[in-house]
Structure formats: C-alpha cells, structure tokens
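Quick illustration, no need to memorize.
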Amino acid sequence: MTFSALGEIDLALISLYLFWLFFAGLVIWLQRENMREGYPLEDDDANVSSGQGVYGLPSTKTFTLPHGRGDVTVPNGAPEGRDLALTRTSSSAGSPYEPSGDPLADGVGPASWAPRRDVPELDGHGHPKIVPMRMSSKFAISAGRDPRGMPVVSDDLKIVGTVTDMWIDEPEQLVRYLEFDLSEGGSRLLPMTLARITGRGVMVHSLAASQFGAIPAIKSQTQVTKLEEEKVSAYYCGGKLYAAHEDRLEPQLA
C-alpha cells in the first residue's frame, strides 16, 4: 500500500524507520543501565573525570537484595575514597605509578582488591556457598591425591605449613581453597588455582616463605566472606609480580 501524498514512503519503510528508532533507543538505554556501578568515573588521582560518557548517568534505582540482605541504591555518587601507597613515576599525566610501600600488604597493582561486601556468598537457598569439607558430608575424595596432611612449600622451597582441609564450593562442586596451618601458628586459606599438588607437597609459586605470615586471615573457621576472598586471592596473585624474586619486576625475554 502506497500513500501518494507521502511520495515514495510506504508502510514497509515506516516500519523500518520505527525499528531503527527502537533499536537506537534500546542501545542508549542499555548503555545507561551499564553505568549504574563504577560511575561517575575517576582519574588516577581519584578526581572526578571529565569524560563521563555520551549519554550521562541514569537516574538512581533501588534494588532489594535476596535473603534479607537489605537494599542497594545505584548510582549513589559515592567517591571511592582511595588512599593508596602509590607514587607517580613522572609528573606527566598518564604516567605509571609504582608502589611506595609493601604492595602485597597495601593491595596495589596485581595485589589490588575490590571492596566487596563483608558477607559470605550465598547459594540459591540462602546458605554459604563455600564451606570446609569437614562440615559437609556430601563430598569425599574419590580420585587423585588427597592434599590433606601434605606440606605447603613456598617458592624458595621451604615448608611453611601443613594442609588441614579443603573448602568446597557446594553448588559448583569443586575445591576453591586449601586450608593449612602455618608452622609459626595460625591457619590460612590458599586458592586452589594457585596451588600445585605434587609428590613433594603443595607447591606455591607466588610467595616466599617469609611472606606467608602476612596472608590475610579470615574471621570464621566455617565460612569466608566475599571481601576476605578478595583480599586472600589478591595477596597471592600480587606475589606473581612483587614477591619471591626481585627480577619478577623486570621484563621477561622468551
């Protein structure tokens, strides 16, 4: 059907234009919804950045969290309030920053962590997802080498502790952490992805023996919070660059 008063415009062309308008509006809406967390943007010095994007921040929206954990309103405009032990290597904008203290303890660079909520991650039934195997009768070692009782060996080949338990992610049915007792006292968690189980023991490549005592401890022996997971994992990961050997900071040639 063609309307002579509109020239060459017919219903098919009008439908196409309406679809284009709808699709453009959808893209803009999705882009603004994507700006609810992490905005307004900040520069390296924690000042509000001048480039906030083309579309602007969305209006605030309040979300009710499951399992009675309250409400969250975003965007809330709260600054990050960073006070990091970093020093800019040059006065030029965009220059890299270097740690000015102990990067593992200060949580900078690859040892940085996000301020997640200090509560355990829950499964769909409201129970903590990650628990020690000693508290769950649903799991057992059916194949492979059981690391419990094995020594924990640092990058400089020193025994720093003994594995006492495994922490299981029940919904995912896998081991997230190994728990071990330090030789100098106290227990710590070791991310399973950063441990290598061998005939000699549980090898940890990212830390020297002298750095195990400063691994962030957890408050409870039956559950781990999301913030604790961040700090523990960040400490080990930061050691990939900052710990054990000073030559890790230098360029690596294949």
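The two ends are 68 Å apart (CA to CA).
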